[in-house]
Amino acid sequence: MFGVGPVIAATVLGDTPDVSRFATEEIAHKHSQGHASYQRKVAEGKTPAEARWALRRKISNAIWTELQADARTRATGGSDPT
């Protein structure tokens, strides 16, 4: 992923219980939230590539939100949430 260095990549991989949380695997699992999101985008008229891009963006937004929450917790002197 552009802009993600080795430390952030290792953090994300270390905090990810399994690869089913990533876009291509999410699409393959018929009963996952990612598959539903992908199908919704295709039904809206997006191409499969656009639908995958939207799902990847949704996942990256979730990762960003978690990283920001961790940073806020550390900045306020709270305990590490992991």
Walk me through this protein's architecture.
With 82 residues, the chain is mainly α. Helix content is 67%, strand content 0%. It is built from four helices and no strands. It has helices at residues 6-15, 23-28, 33-43, 48-75. Helix 3 (33-43) packs across helix 4. It is elongated. The two termini are 23 Å apart.
What fraction, in percent, of the residue positions are helical?
55-70%
Query: Helices and strands: which structural class?
Result: mainly alpha
Instruction: Tell me the distance between the termini.
Output: 23 Å
- General form: elongated
Task: Compute the CA-based radius of gyration.
Answer: 15 Å
Number of helices: 4
| Number of extended strands | 0
* Helix and strand pattern: HHHH
* Mean residue pLDDT: 77
> What would you call the quaternary organization?
single chain
User: Strand portion, in percent?
Assistant: under 5%
The poorly predicted ranges are: none
The biggest beta sheet is recorded as: none
List keywords for this structure.
4 helices, mainly alpha, 82 residues
Task: Give the secondary structure arrangement, pairings included.
Layout: H1 6-15, H2 23-28, H3 33-43, H4 48-75
Quick synopsis:
The protein is mainly α and 82 residues long.
